[in-house]
Amino acid sequence: MIFINKLIINISSLKFAILLIIFIAFASSLGTLIPQGNDTSEYIELYKIKPFLKILDGEKILNMGLDHIYTSNWFLATLVLLCISLAACSFRRQIPSLKASFKWIDYKNENKFKKLQLACNWESKNSQDAILNAEKLLKANGWESLISKDRISARKGIIGKLGPIIVHIGLIILLVGSAYGNLTTQSKEIFLNPSEELELINDSTNRKLTLQLKNFFIERESDGSPKQFISSLDFNPKNSDNNLIKTVEVNHPLRYQGLTIYQADWAISSIILKVANIPYQLNLKPVPEIGEQVWGVLIELGENDKKNYLLTVDNENGPVKFFDAQNFNETDVYIDNKKVVINSSDVEIKEVITSSGLIIKNDPSIPFIYFSFILIILGTLLSVIPTKKLWILTNKDSKKIYMGGLSNRNLAGFRNEFLNLSIQLKNY
Predict the structure, then answer these.
(1) How far is CA 26 from CA 30, 66, 153, 177, 359, in A?
(2) Is the per-residue pLDDT at 242 higher than 80?
């Protein structure tokens, strides 16, 4: 029993909670620096030459579960332990403190006033009138009071005692919601071409949802650099009379029916061109050897002496570059412009088709997260409210009135309020 009591005391201590929070913050920082959820081979290859922090190679990262920190058993166990710590602190400290604050403390002896933060006394001819006047004055200033024949106990701001408990409840809901989200969140990264449809199925509810990419726009700066990516999505493509079209932009995610859709990337998927007046649509692939965002495909041109050309493009507005595979000479062809002869073949670019890169998430923990934030903010605001207590006692023998009080915070403000109340009572 003694061991259990000591264990509860240690778990509910502030030091223990701070250590857990520091550990969670450190683990989360590792999760930011180390890519999460990739294939095991990628970690072996990535940290083969340069180990993480010069000590952790790919195998060690995999063995320690650092490739999936937020869903690892040790990370979730830490969250559970922090929840237990917060709950133990609430039951051991905050709830008893709240209960104690609702109990009326009756001061029958003026000697007790010496132990209070603020105290004063003055002579009064009619002690009974002084008590009645004090009750009216305190009520007018928002004080709750308990009156006896010769004394008053008053309090104000008791609701502030609820603040820490509400904050703890909010933190527990946040931790539980985060853990729940890590285990149940579904995420999918896709590239859609205009008019292409995607059918989504919720694994937990089997609910189906079809969305279609209506349009994809790229806003560019004057120098040609990307400024914003905008996707128009139709969530009811099968009913042309009742289209439900919503837009998603970078840093402006779209939320719909429990889904969160992020504008994450873009690509050039294909190109439509004419070679010798024959239309072709060629699918493109990234060419990292040339540039970070360059897409291309090999194409054979020439009527008699055919040659391989590398077709590349890095901008939806063109130009499209044709590189001779032998000597790498470059020929630029612009969209819907004049025909260009390349190795005796007439080449005409009609359209460059871009695709929108979207991340679609189904996170059932979002309502819990939002609710926890509301509780934490509310609890923090309530915690700022000072809890003040005041006592007034009359002594018939000495014909004196004793007044004293205390506050758990903002003592300077309470001192001014205390002085104003004492002056008004003296002048009654």
Answers:
(1) 6, 12, 49, 20, 27
(2) no
